[in-house]
TrEMBL record:
Full protein name: DUF8069 domain-containing protein
UniProt lineage: Archaea, Methanobacteriati, Methanobacteriota, Stenosarchaea group, Halobacteria
Organism: Natribaculum luteum
Ranges where the DUF8069 domain occurs: 1-95
Pfam family, one: DUF8069
Length: 96
């Protein structure tokens, strides 16, 4: 056999590896919001209420995330939203 064997060609391997490593770096940099359980959410939202970031509207049974103006009817929703909102805001500041 005098020509290169197509199965032995590794020319594109380094590009695939680099693409995979970049994707892993992006995944690591992202904030996970899927791991917010009820207890963690309650602690986070209580802290946010104390810091006036979240306002409880008792007569409507909602929680308002003041910086964004978004309203939620679940403590877990507010906690997940705030984590994502904070991560996006922090990423925007890092880009500047």
């Amino acid at each position: 056999m005098t020509g290169p064997d197509i199965l032995d060609d590794t020319g594109d391997d380094h590009e695939r590896l680099e693409t995979e490593l970049l994707a892993q770096d992006r995944d690591i940099a992202q904030v996970s919001t899927a791991d917010v359980d009820e207890t963690t959410a309650r602690h986070l939202v209580n802290d946010l209420v104390d810091d006036s970031v979240v306002t409880a509207v008792a007569e409507q049974r909602i929680l308002v995330h003041e910086p964004s103006g978004e309203a939620f009817d679940s403590i877990q929703q507010v906690a997940v939203f705030h984590r994502g909102w904070s991560a996006a805001r922090d990423a925007g500041e890092a880009d500047k």
